[in-house]
Specification:
With 171 residues, the protein is mostly helical. The chain contains four helices and two strands; from the N terminus they run αβαααβ. Strands 1-2 form a two-stranded parallel ribbon. Helix 1 crosses helix 4 and helix 3 packs antiparallel against helix 4. It is rod-shaped, with a radius of gyration of 26 Å. The two termini are 22 Å apart.
């Protein structure tokens, strides 16, 4: 839940910062001295991103990378299973100390591989988050236009809204 709140605050902070950079701030009217913003708009950030061509391209690239990583993980798992079976089989013919050394080496190999594969997964997740941040940074001017056209005072992330009329949703 904290991640959702942070994402909402981050998006709102980006929007507010861009609005202030373009001369739109809390005390300034959008269309003149008598036209104060008054509405509330709701944006489903996930849908906004995933329905865009950029979001669809990024998602396709990440899915392909994820499938490649899953395939690699299955291949590694098969190889390690074979090695483990061989080690179990060799246990009968090895001295106890020799077996313990080989078992410890195998365990270390597994831990190293697991750490490497986990790092690859984290890198994919970080790439997805970075792509979304780039998208929203580029989308701020468009969102500002929508806010101005709709004379909205607030743009909220749909994840922070419990109940709303359909007319305030812009995605």
């Amino acid at each position: 839940m904290a991640g959702l709140a942070f994402a909402g605050l981050l998006a709102w902070g980006l929007l507010l910062g861009a609005a202030q950079a373009q001369g739109l701030s809390q005390g300034e009217p959008v269309d003149g001295p008598d036209a104060a913003p008054e509405g509330i708009l709701i944006l489903n950030q996930d849908r906004f991103f995933s329905d865009s061509q950029y979001g669809q391209r990024v998602q396709a690239e990440l899915e392909a990378a994820g499938l490649a990583l899953a395939t690699e993980n299955r291949e590694i798992e098969a190889r390690l299973t074979e090695e483990e079976l061989q080690l179990t089989e060799d246990r009968q013919s090895l001295e106890r100390d020799e077996f313990m050394v080989r078992a410890a080496e195998f365990d270390q190999q597994v831990e190293t591989i697991r750490a490497t594969q986990d790092a690859k997964t984290r890198a994919l997740n970080a790439a997805a988050e970075a792509a979304q941040r780039r998208f929203f940074n580029l989308a701020v001017p468009i969102l500002l236009e929508v806010v101005a056209e709709r004379r909205a005072a607030v743009l909220l992330d749909s994840r922070t809204v419990l109940l709303a009329a359909a007319t305030v949703a812009i995605t």
